[in-house]
Write a structure and sequence with these properties.
Blueprint: E1 43-47, E2 57-60, E3 78-81, E4 101-103, E5 111-116, H1 124-133, E6 139-145, H2 152-160, E7 164-170, H3 176-180, H4 185-202, E8 206-210, H5 228-244, E9 250-257, E10 280-284, H6 294-306, E11 313-318, H7 326-340, E12 344-349, H8 361-377
Parallel strand pairs: 5-6, 5-12, 6-7, 7-8, 8-9, 9-10, 10-11, 11-12
Antiparallel strand pairs: 1-2, 1-3, 3-4
Helix pairs in contact: 2-4, 4-5, 7-8
Length: 379
């Protein structure tokens, strides 16, 4: 099986540079586990059922269990704000000593997300996707350029639509060594404070990835451009800053590309930052050909990830080209998520090197049927 070369994509949000769509191939494994948040003693903020309406927060004296979630749109969040000593090296902010701790549930087949053009300027493209497919998504993906602030307005719109924001922060041409040694700490502290503020105001979490697909060669932060050790140092430094600032409402998504050794995309193992720095694993991969299956496309990478960690896995970017028989591949990806026990998927609903949008009646019907299997599988 040969891979399609990763091609350059246009701007996603009007501020940041390029987005590739690429790579490929062979066979895998399965599993799932949890990584828990920080223990707490002060008081609990608890979020109730996203599926049925706006969140309400109640202050109680002990840590309560997260409420069960309904179907494809539900996200149950347990928020705890414990006391913790403030670090003297960090500028004062409202969340030092009382971090905002929010943990997303990890039920298999419980997350459906989407990215579409003009996000995060507007939530309308996600509403349009819902209107087309009659499927309500509970992850709203957007890409964030370096030095771009947290998009609070978009995040609040996600809350209003019972969804969690997924932010892929892209360093662009910024040197990862500079990030790792602290040259951008003021920006990162400000970003972390905004994310913590969002959590305190809403009781909601945020999924954040940084420098995604590092095992691919198409980005300046990827394979062949910076060493894995440098990439890991930058990742860990960012996570440390967010935690130091009290932004513990972040689910850290370590996002890798599917393995395609013949196209220069190796196993992601060398970029693994360690379990204490990762909450979930994201895997990006696309169907270019009819002969490709979930097992051949994602299986080898799932197997490689499982050798590193049992952290939950999300298919964090995917699509199927019309030439690959889009409706059949949509059915295949839902079946694969079920077979491997994964969290779910984020659909890249945009026209780039291929038109990945779900548009034909057959593809829309396949997406709707796949979502209905989520409902059946929901706890």
């Amino acid at each position: 099986m040969t891979a399609m070369p990763p091609g350059s994509e246009g701007p996603r949000n009007g501020r940041t540079a390029t987005r590739h769509r690429g790579a490929i191939v062979d066979d895998g494994s399965h599993g799932l586990a949890a990584r828990t948040g920080t223990a707490a003693r002060a008081f609990t903020r608890r979020v109730v059922n996203l599926w049925q309406g706006r969140p309400t927060l109640a202050t109680v004296g002990s840590v309560a269990a997260a409420i069960g979630v309904a179907a494809i749109t539900a996200v149950t969040i347990q928020a705890v704000i414990p006391d913790r000593p403030a670090a003297t090296t960090v500028p004062a902010n409202p969340f030092r000593g009382r971090p905002v701790v929010i943990t997303l549930p990890i039920h298999p087949e419980s997350y459906l997300g989407v990215y579409a053009d003009n996000i995060p300027h507007s939530y309308a493209p996600i509403e349009a996707f819902t209107a087309t497919t009659h499927v309500h998504t509970n992850i709203a993906l957007y890409y964030s350029g370096w030095n771009e602030p947290f998009q609070m307005s978009f995040a609040m719109q996600a809350v209003a639509h019972d969804a969690v924001p997924l932010v892929q922060i892209e360093p662009g041409i910024t040197k990862l060594t500079a990030i790792a040694v602290g040259d951008y700490d003021a920006y990162l502290e400000s970003y972390a404070n905004a994310v913590a503020s969002f959590g305190a105001r809403t009781g909601r979490g945020v999924i954040i990835g940084f420098a995604h697909e590092p095992n691919g060669p198409w980005y300046r932060w990827g394979s062949g451009h910076v060493t894995p050790a440098t990439w890991i140092a930058a990742w860990r430094h960012i996570v440390d800053i967010f935690r130091r600032q009290g932004a513990d409402n972040v689910t850290w998504l370590w996002t890798v590309n599917i393995i395609a050794k013949q196209r220069g995309v190796p196993s992601p193992a060398r970029w693994w930052p360690g379990s204490s720095y990762v909450t979930w694993v994201g895997i990006d991969g696309y169907y270019y050909k009819q002969s490709w299956t979930f097992a051949s496309l994602f299986g080898p990478t799932i197997k490689a990830v499982r050798a590193l960690t049992l952290d939950p896995i999300l298919i964090s970017e995917t699509g199927a080209a019309p030439i690959a028989n889009q409706s059949a591949k949509i059915a295949d990806i839902f079946a694969g998520i079920h077979l491997y026990g994964l969290l779910g998927l984020v659909w890249f609903d945009a026209d780039r090197s291929r038109d990945w949008r779900v548009s034909s009646q057959a593809a829309v019907a396949a997406f709707r049927r796949g979502a209905e299997t989520y409902k059946a599988a929901a706890p």
